[in-house]
TrEMBL record:
Residues 350-417 are annotated as: Disordered. It comes from Nonomuraea deserti. The phosphoenolpyruvate-dependent sugar phosphotransferase system (sugar PTS), a major carbohydrate active transport system, catalyzes the phosphorylation of incoming sugar substrates concomitantly with their translocation across the cell membrane. The enzyme II CmtAB PTS system is involved in D-mannitol transport. It holds the Pfam family PTS_EIIC. Residues 21-349 form the PTS EIIC type-2 domain. Signal peptide: none annotated. GO terms for biological process: phosphoenolpyruvate-dependent sugar phosphotransferase system. The keyword Transferase applies. The lineage of its organism: Bacteria, Bacillati, Actinomycetota, Actinomycetes, Streptosporangiales. This is PTS mannose transporter subunit IIA.
Length: 417
């Protein structure tokens, strides 16, 4: 499944290993992009700060991002490793991770889904030759149930707390950078954490409380702008639209609308997970945006929720629209430029398509032409040469046998030449 979204990787070096990991991540995430878009639309429309606030419909937002999307990711990852049986045990195992923490467990789903399927794959190999006839279904069902249940317990008691500890550590690190006036460097931690779906933990757990305290004293705070800037995501998606893999380009415009105007940044995270090196693009864009905010003295009076361009401008103090808009544009431009370079301006994909299509066509055309020419050249030489030779044998004369055999054989050959 990963091969549908990323080119095949050859080699055994560090770069090839990273590309393979990115391909497997893409295989788990990209088939479920439709579910992410559906969640983004529901969130942008029906949450209290959305376009059409609706308390009843907004109840779907939490279960979709907290349960459905992790289950889909784990299901897809398990299917990649061990087919339908792997998909089922992956979906079962991820429930332990989902219940074991309050944050959306996309990273945990990408770990435990394929891992559980791999364990079941080895269990099936072990039991396949040792199961007596008539007991196959019993053994298969119980082995899948036992593996899925055990991994769900491990996920709840092990993987969930580990991811929670990583979230807390990332928040503390961001707080330390802020307290030491290293705001542009904070993007080095904020952007990777966002891609791992820890954006809400960092924004609402660290940045927003510090920003509220600062805004109470000065009337505005730049801390509200560190995580919520829609510029880096917009630049990344624009680079994907122009230079990304062709199968993904049709989904990019909808993702751009949801991310930039709807404020749902999670919509672009799978695109980074598909090609992990693109994290450098959003880091560079985020740092450039923060530097621009500092240079222009920009700040917001409250946290923009969701992180839409409209929400951004709505909480910008009077006279600060230039700084806010300029920071978003600079972040988008830098992110786009770096992502375009990392994507090779689409040259890698074009070279791969040319390399896979042209040799086949040229070989096919050359082979068919050569066979046609050889057929045309041999038929006149063999047909007329053998028939008269048979007649001459029956008549027991040498004259008719040599005459037709030489003339028709040489004549078409001369014409052909």
């Amino acid at each position: 499944m990963a091969e549908s979204y990323t080119p095949p990787v050859t080699g055994t070096g560090v770069k090839a290993t990273i590309q393979r990991i990115g391909g497997h991540l893409a295989g788990m995430i990209m088939p479920n992009i439709g579910a992410f878009i559906a969640w983004g639309l529901i969130t942008a429309l029906f949450i209290p700060t959305g376009w059409l606030p609706n308390e009843t419909l907004a109840k779907m937002v939490g279960p979709i991002i907290g349960t459905l999307l992790p289950v889909l990711i784990a299901y897809t990852g398990g299917r990649m490793v061990h087919g339908q049986r792997g998909a089922v045990v992956g979906a079962v195992a991820v429930m332990g991770v989902v219940v074991g923490t309050e944050s959306p467990m996309f990273l945990g789903a990408m770990i435990i889904g394929p891992l559980t399927a791999l364990i079941l794959k080895y269990v099936d190999k072990f039991t396949e030759q040792r199961t007596k006839a008539g007991f196959e279904m019993l053994v298969d069902n119980f082995s899948a149930g036992i593996v899925g249940g055990v991994m769900a317990v491990i996920g709840m008691l092990g993987i969930g707390p580990i991811v929670e500890a990583a979230t807390t550590a990332a928040g503390n690190a961001v707080g330390w950078l802020i307290s030491n006036n290293l705001l542009p460097v904070a993007s080095v931690l904020i952007e990777p954490a966002k891609v791992l779906f820890l954006n809400n933990a960092i924004n609402h757990g660290v940045l927003t409380p510090l920003g509220i305290a600062e805004a109470a004293q000065t009337g505005k705070s730049i801390l509200f702008m560190l995580e919520s800037n829609p510029g880096p995501g917009l630049g990344l998606l624009l680079a994907f639209l122009l230079f990304g893999p062709r199968p993904l380009r049709p989904s990019t415009p909808a993702a751009m609308l949801i991310q930039f105007f709807g404020g749902i940044h999670e919509i672009y995270f799978p695109y980074v997970l598909m090609k992990p090196r693109l994290i450098l693009a959003v880091i560079a864009g985020g740092a450039a945006g923060v530097f621009t905010f500092i240079a222009t003295g920009a700040g917001l009076v409250a946290s923009p929720s969701p992180g839409s361009i409209f929400a951004y401008l709505a909480v910008t103090p009077r006279g600060g629209w230039l700084g806010s808009s300029l920071g978003i544009l600079v972040a988008a431009a830098v992110s786009f430029a770096v992502a375009a370079v990392l994507l090779g301006f689409g040259r890698g994909e074009k070279a791969e398509q040319d390399g896979s299509a042209d040799p086949t066509e040229s070989t096919g055309s050359t082979g068919s032409t050569g066979s046609a020419e050889s057929t045309e050249g041999t038929e006149p030489a063999t047909g007329p040469a053998t028939e008269p030779a048979t007649e001459s044998t029956t008549k027991l004369t040498t004259e008719p046998a040599t005459e037709p055999a030489t003339e028709p054989a040489t004549e078409p050959a001369t014409k052909e030449a």
